[in-house]
Amino acid sequence: MIELKQVSKTFGYGEKKVQALHPIDLTIKQGEVVGLLGFSGAGKSTLLRLINRLEVPSGGRILVEGKDITDLSESNLRLVRQRIGMIFQQFNLLSNRTALENVLFGIQVSGRAGADATDKALKALHLVGLADKTQAYPSQLSGGQKQRVAIARALAMEPGILLCDEATSALDPHTALSILRLLKSLQRERGMTLVVVTHDIKVASYLCDRAIVLEKGHVVDNIDMRMPQPVSLLGKFFFETAKGWTDETVLPQEDA
Ligand SMILES: Nc1ncnc2c1ncn2[C@@H]1O[C@H](COP(=O)(O)OP(=O)(O)OP(=O)(O)O)[C@@H](O)[C@H]1O
Ligand SMILES: [Mg+2]
């Protein structure tokens, strides 16, 4: 689905050279939810931006849905980018356009504006719970609502992959959780691949199947974040027991 082979990134030249990413190998499966964790400057955003080729790699190869996008020209990248949505910490909405116009703009930029574009945009806004804010300008919306518009803009393109760069970092915990819940339910409904940059382990443990930890441009860890998911009553009993008994612990067979 997404494959990085020995991908590296260096910014600047000579004295000012910064190796943001050392050669990285990474495979993300279709429908997987992967967190990129690390401190400031670790290379998280750079890695994310390489996936939709907002950054050009200094070395290695990038494959998205089986297609090698490493050397694609801007015009050929358009097709690939139609498959990849992105949302940002600072929402990146156009301030002189309404919520609806912002979502429509996303559809136009992706080159998919047909007769049904307005319909699609309205549907996307409805889906993120903003059916009553379609005519509002960004300045009239709260942070959480702005991020919902940004999510609607990304979703209207029906992307197979959604990249999120600190999408909830500027939001209070309550609003952040509501946005994460929205992302989780949309991901499940659509089977989207989600790559989420965060420095917050809570975000990764709530949302992600796997967390990649970056340090100074190196991948230093690859953690399975999925909780054990027993399906049988007995399996659940053993799992609950591992967590510690409570009054609510269900005995598998009282009469055995
Ligand atoms: N356009 C650029 N020009 C020069 N250096 C850059 C550029 N973009 C990033 N860098 C450098 O690359 C390194 C990694 O930056 P990156 O933005 O990927 O970090 P990050 O993990 O996303 O950090 P943060 O959590 O602060 O967003 C940093 O040292 C940064 O200064
Ligand atoms: Mg960043």
Question: What's the quick description here?
Answer:
With 256 residues, the chain is an alpha/beta fold. The chain contains eight helices and ten strands.
Order of helices and strands: EEEHEEHEHHHEHEHEEH
Q: Major sheet: order of its strands?
A: 6-7-8-3-9-10
CATH homologous superfamily descriptor: P-loop containing nucleotide triphosphate hydrolases
Integer average pLDDT: 92
By helix and strand content, what is the structural category?
A: alpha/beta
Largest sheet features: 6 strands, mixed
| Straight-line N-to-C gap | 48 Å
Helices and strands in order, then pairings?
Blueprint: E1 2-11, E2 18-28, E3 33-37, H1 44-51, E4 59-64, E5 67-68, H2 74-81, E6 84-88, H3 99-109, H4 117-127, H5 143-155, E7 161-165, H6 173-190, E8 193-198, H7 201-207, E9 210-215, E10 218-224, H8 233-243
Parallel strand pairs: 3-8, 3-9, 6-7, 7-8
Antiparallel strand pairs: 1-2, 1-4, 4-5, 9-10
Helix pairs in contact: 3-4, 3-5, 4-5, 5-6
The protein binds adenosine-5'-triphosphate and magnesium ion.
